[in-house]
Amino acid sequence: MDIQTIQFSTETETAAKIQSDCMILGLHHDLKIDQQAGELNAATENLLAELAGDNELPTGVGKTLMLRAPRGLEAKRLLIVGFGKVSDFDEHTYIQAARAAGDALRQCPATDACCLLDGVELKGRDHRWKVEQAALALDHADYIYSATKTPLESAPPATRTVRFIDAPGVAEALDRVHHLALGIRRCRLLSDLPPNICTPIYLADTAEKLAREIDGLEVEVLDENQMDDLGMWSLLAVARGSANPPRLFRMSWRGGAADQAPTALVGKGVTFDTGGISIKPRELMEQMKFDMCGAATTIGTLEAIARMGLAINVDGIVAAAENMPDGKAYRPGDVIETLSGKTVEVHNTDAEGRMILADALTWTARNVEPGVMVDIATLTGACVVALGHHASAVMTNDDELADELLAAGIESADRAWRLPLWDQYQEQIDTPFADIKNVGGMPAGAITAGCFLSRFTEGQRWAHLDIAGSAWRWGKAESASGRPVGMLTQWLITRAEGQS
Ligand code: BES
Ligand code: MN
Ligand code: ZN
After folding, report:
1. What is the pLDDT of residue 477?
2. How far is the CA of 323 from the centre of ligand 3 (A)?
3. Which of 87, 228, 367, 394 has the fewest C-beta atoms under 10 angstroms from its C-beta?
4. Is the minimum distance from the CB of 378 to ligand 1 under 6 angstroms?
5. Number of the ligand closest to the Cα of 283
6. Which numbered atom of ligand 1 lies nearest the CA of 449?
7. pTM summary value
8. Is 149 marked active-site?
9. Is 354 a known active-site residue?
10. Does residue 79 surpass a pLDDT of 70?
């Protein structure tokens, strides 16, 4: 499926002279107009001050006011978005306001806009950051799923172009944002697609299509027979109940030195998780199409960094399977031999993510020999209970790696929070009948899933990201968030800078 982002570019004209369908301005309601938008106020013959005087400026964060034919401006419209109070303003309210502006833009007939949001004072963040995040927020709001839904004839058009006022570094920042936005859109679209379209084979085909499209990006795909020959029986056990065969694939980007060990991302790609024989309740089962968000994140991140031409070696490994109940399905009580040689007693066929990742991690450790590997998975409901939708969970025994990932999360405003993987939790997955069992009981469900994965890391530097909460929003406006493509891309950018 074709993906397009907003086109971003720079503008050297002064704000009042810029011709566009819509000028986007952010304002604090408790700060004097001449302290934040003096020039624009002068250009509009005091229009902004008049609005403030009549209490017509948006007062809450993300509240918007759309003005048609603003006096003194060449632009057709002026969209004012509320930044809230100066004292409460931070990077997250900035992004919230920028997304709200994007929503308003998406709902109006404008297809071209000029963004002035980055002119605001924001403590601790430089101009480049403000431009990047505003562009990402506008692009985020512009994405509306339409792959299997006919748009209304009256639906307003997507935004085609957004310009930012030129300044040192802005054009480079926008160039990078464009590639990141593509990766995020790829991740969101793959995640939002229904499970009858987005099967394991569809995911592998997408990777192959990207490899054809992007110079230097390579892909290698293993089918079920090749996996069987290798002994990936833990992954195959999960896939056995499904008519859709599994795939394991590896996307390789070699932007770094030939002798540099690749950084590996390993994504959980369960294209639909019924729970298998330990079947899930019927309510909300349809949400389990999102159980491939780890795979979508891996694909989206590889797309972003390859399009950026990042100077680093990265491998994205995806373990893709569907978890269905069937006469051939694996069952509770089964003991399965994994690729590592370790045996696993299945207590719950719904703990399938760790079963497929066990083999994918072993395969990665042995075949990729990465300097470091990070798996990404919608692994546990317990993670959603612990952190909600605002943070991805990071689990690792490598403090430095934890710090790197958390820092990338802060820099990209795609945050993560660390959970411990202390040895004491490990005994919860002991069983008399195998080397490991696949569930650890009620206490610390996200952590014992991490403990399970830690048994398959073969001594590599490794971290596990549980994105069950961060990867998608539940409820009315349910859809994939595209997270944590932003965080991982930032992490790889920082690593590339450190290695060059
Ligand atoms: N994909 C689910 C995790 C999940 C559940 C994510 C709800 C988002 C919302 C995973 O495969 C799963 O079913 N995990 C079980 C593990 C349990 C059986 C130990 C869970 O969390 O209930
Ligand atoms: Mn499950
Ligand atoms: Zn699952």
Report:
1. 75
2. 8
3. 87
4. yes
5. 1
6. 19
7. 0.98
8. no
9. yes
10. yes
Q: Which ligand is nearest to the CA of 438?
A: 1
Ligand 1 neighbour 440 (Cβ under 6 A): no
What is the SS3 assignment for the chain? CCCCCCEEEEECCCHHHCCCCEEEEEEECCCCHHHHCHHHHHHCCCHHHHHHHCCCCCCCCCCEEEEECCCCCCCCEEEEEEEECHHHCCHHHHHHHHHHHHHHHHCCCCCEEEECHHHCCCCCCCHHHHHHHHHHHHHHHHCCCCCCCCCCCCCCCCCCEEEEECCCCHHHHHHHHHHHHHHHHHHHHHHHCCCCCCCHHHHHHHHHHHHHHCCCEEEEEECHHHHHHHCCHHHHHHHCCCCCCCEEEEEEEECCCCCCCCEEEEEEEEEEECCCCCCCCCCCHHHHHHHHHHHHHHHHHHHHHHHHCCCCEEEEEEEEEEECCCCCCCCCCCEEECCCCCEEECCCCCCCHHHHHHHHHHHHHHHCCCCEEEEEECCCHHHHHHHCCCCEEEECCCHHHHHHHHHHHHHCCCCEEECCCCHHHHHHHCECCECEECCCCCCCHHHHHHHHHHCCCCCCEEEEEECCCCCEECCCCCEECCCCHHHHHHHHHHHHHHHC
Is pLDDT above 90 for 305?
Answer: yes
Among the bound ligands, the one closest to the CA of 451? 1
439 lines ligand 1 (CB under 6 A): yes
Indicate if ligand 1 lies below 6 Å from the C-beta of 468.
yes
Domains of the chain, start order: 7-163 (3.40.220.10), 181-499 (3.40.630.10)
What is the tens place of the pLDDT at every residue in 201-227? 999 999 999 999 999 999 999 999 999
447 lines ligand 1 (CB under 6 A): no
Q: What is the pLDDT of residue 500?
A: 58
